[in-house]
Amino acid sequence: MGILVVGSVAFDSVETPFGKMDSILGGSATYFSTSASFFTDVSLVAVVGDDFQEEHIDFLRSRNIDLTGLSRVNGKTFHWKGKYGYDLNEAQTLETHLNVFESFKPVIPALYAGADYLFLANIDPELQMEVLNQMQKPRVVACDTMNFWISSKREALKKVVERVDILIINEGEARQFTGEANLVKAAKSILAMGAKTLIIKRGEYGVLMFTDSTIFAAPAYPLEEVFDPTGAGDTFAGGFMGYLANTGDTSEEGIRQAIIFGSVMASFNVEDFSLNRLKKLDYKEIESRYRGFKKMTHFEGLSSR
Amino acid sequence: MGILVVGSVAFDSVETPFGKMDSILGGSATYFSTSASFFTDVSLVAVVGDDFQEEHIDFLRSRNIDLTGLSRVNGKTFHWKGKYGYDLNEAQTLETHLNVFESFKPVIPALYAGADYLFLANIDPELQMEVLNQMQKPRVVACDTMNFWISSKREALKKVVERVDILIINEGEARQFTGEANLVKAAKSILAMGAKTLIIKRGEYGVLMFTDSTIFAAPAYPLEEVFDPTGAGDTFAGGFMGYLANTGDTSEEGIRQAIIFGSVMASFNVEDFSLNRLKKLDYKEIESRYRGFKKMTHFEGLSSR
């Protein structure tokens, strides 16, 4: 079995210096599952309202994403409105309408409970825990979170982190969660909570991975045109988990490769609004950019000169 | 012949969240030459006042740095006062007393004019040009600059950049110099001015190198204790040029290795105030951290699986 993701399917209204788009397809589970679908089978648990268009369902189906777990209820779909300045690293949230997402109680279909790979996208840590409790024995559990939960549900979040294998958060969140300005100290403090692997996302600066004995640093792919960073983190996580699930190789070496695949997917995603770039993407382009990462980071080791 | 560096030898008064030091040894040429001295012979052209202590001269001599070009004149040595917050990436300048540095006119001793490697540290671009005009035919010229010269002497700076092989500046300066928010575009615009290689320093995020056809991304070494970032950029440049001069390998592969050596040196330098860490450093530690960089960035390429 492939990956199960629990998160949001949403509409985004996004303004960047390069344009403005209203009510386009978004949501953590949407970006994650689309990205992961390039590598493996994905099942999605989320909720949408009755305003959610059939074309989006069709798109997700076209990516072979199993939508048994997507419930459609009366009301409006979660809607996020945000804005980016020229510093595309940080979004300014203008409006958040949770709508049907407010009463979202993820119920894992029996068929999904045996999934080997589970991604808990950024939702209330108490719900993340409920999902965990409905699962049988996943091989790899990864989770994301955000500043809001770190400040409002810190204890619940800590309990989730105790039970996950991989925590994927951004730099600011790692500092906030631990109260440590220094990232190496912050990482140690998070690993001490129980996660075996910590992946810290740094936007255009790439990713740092920490385990109890190693550090891996991956750059972001320098792009000449970044249109819309929305969903980059979930697209990263999708490529990362997708590759892990595809190979089943959860050694450190496998995780490092998965991080590069995640970075590749995120680098494509920011090239256009919404999922537009992922919709046009093919696997050859993914491999080619992976090779680009390899070239971009290569340097010779020390010989015994 | 080794490297010639023209820049400042100064006193710094530095405050960081971890302590406060008054009138400690600093200056771009000091950091650069000390760092480069681990790899090759260095000659220094700079000016100090009559308050410059013999112990500092002794230290530089102990590193085999040729001080024929260090003039000692009546007056006070250049003194910079700065402060760092927990975000150690950016210094806040509190005071700048140019003192004897104000009337610094670099005169290159005849013996130095044939140097193969020249580093023009951050000084007035008009003086950088005067230095260039006194040189015979250096194999590799690299230069640094700062926001102050970019805004006040842009045209003079452009003329210098036309004539150098390698420009080493920080991210903010690259954006300021070109008016481009996007770093890839900024890099293209700088390479179009004439520099063959552009190295963009990003503090704790590492370094990006651009040529007309390639990009190299190197991380910074994640450190648990960063005491004082002063001089990190010049220490980077010193390790970089020092290694280049040592091997004579100016191929892209050689430049990439030199960037890692520069990053290694900078990572040591920030572990203590002033040049204190470099004073205790030995070459075995340098090689060991280079290997650490190699491990930290390694991932497998794509096999034909």
UniProtKB/TrEMBL annotation, chains A, B:
GO terms for cellular component: cytosol. Keywords: Kinase, Transferase. It comes from the Bacteria. InterPro entries: Carboh/pur_kinase_PfkB_CS, PfkB_dom, Ribokinase-like. SUPFAM superfamilies: Ribokinase-like. Residues 36-274 form the Carbohydrate kinase PfkB domain. One of its GO terms (molecular function) is kinase activity. It holds the Pfam family PfkB. PROSITE patterns: PFKB_KINASES_2 (PS00584). This is Adenosine kinase. It comes from Geotalea daltonii (strain DSM 22248 / JCM 15807 / FRC-32). The lineage of its organism: Bacteria, Pseudomonadati, Thermodesulfobacteriota, Desulfuromonadia, Geobacterales.
